[in-house]
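Quarterly update, task 2.4: flavin-adenine dinucleotide-bound model.
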Amino acid sequence: MYDIGIIGGGTAGLTAAIYGQRAGKSTLVLEGLNYGGQIVNSPNVENYPGIASISGAEFSMNLMEQASRLGAEMKTEQVTGISEEDGHKVVVTTGESYVCRTVVIATGMVHRHLGLEKEIKLAGAGVSYCATCDGMFFRGRDVAVVGGGNTALQDADFLSNYCNKVYLVHRRDEFRGENNLVQALEKRENVEWILDTVVKDILGEQTVEGLELHNKKTGADSAIKVAGVFVAVGQIPKNQEFADYVSLDDAGFIRASEDCMTSRAGVFAAGDCRTKEVRQLTTAAADGAVAALAAVKYLA
Ligand SMILES: Cc1cc2nc3c(=O)[nH]c(=O)nc-3n(C[C@H](O)[C@H](O)[C@H](O)COP(=O)(O)OP(=O)(O)OC[C@H]3O[C@@H](n4cnc5c(N)ncnc54)[C@H](O)[C@@H]3O)c2cc1C
């Protein structure tokens, strides 16, 4: 029996393990894929306070070692569900089940891709899924944002503060995002709208050099020169396994606020998998701490 069962070995989950162990509780971290989570493949992180520059791999390794040194138990197993048994929580994986007094769900999310071959090849070399994280690398340059929801509109707004020009490429002629965001963007002189248009290809071999576009209405192909493309076509939370156990919002994120409490007593949600505005390493780490300390309080 573990005091705190943690599902997901990204920044939120590993931070929860650090705080849980330091509070004298036994913690088990279950990670289905690779420890470190989304950040592991990022070449450079420059916005984590106190660390001027670090690769995602080194950041992840440091977190893992810190949690491990404190005594957190770690297993590489995919969790398939959670159930209640005799007042405890049973975390079920593909091969085992673990009885825990409390659970922290920290399963993160993945960004929806455009599905282009070059997208994977040039990820981190001009292709980005996070304007807040990577925007600064494109100061003074021309970039494109692809998407039509709030994230795309917010990204375009954010980037227009310091990029030379921002193209906003959207496959429809109207945006899904909020009207006030659209209106704010319309006032930006360095934002150019390219509507009814999809990205056919990403140009460049070593780094992004441009985009090949296809207008769905006219059928015309064209190209723009950009140094970066920010893909904002959706986020996919990895919470389906828990849909019958805790309350999810329409987009599939676990309903929880800054206190990380879910709809179920003794179960907490931390990091990108929960409803929130800002999905970053700092907020994932903050959630990990809050969720673990809430679990400790619950145990008391
Ligand atoms: C390319 C890229 C670059 C980024 N750069 C920055 C940056 O520079 N600065 C910044 O602040 N943020 C950056 N981010 C965002 C940041 O990585 C995330 O906000 C952060 O990783 C969220 O941490 P998390 O622990 O909540 O989720 P994740 O990192 O997504 O970790 C969740 C973990 O849970 C595991 N998991 C999911 N489901 C299960 C299951 N059923 N069973 C077991 N394990 C499961 C996953 O495999 C994953 O390892 C970047 C993101 C990407 C994709």
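Highlight for this quarter: The radius of gyration is 21 Å.
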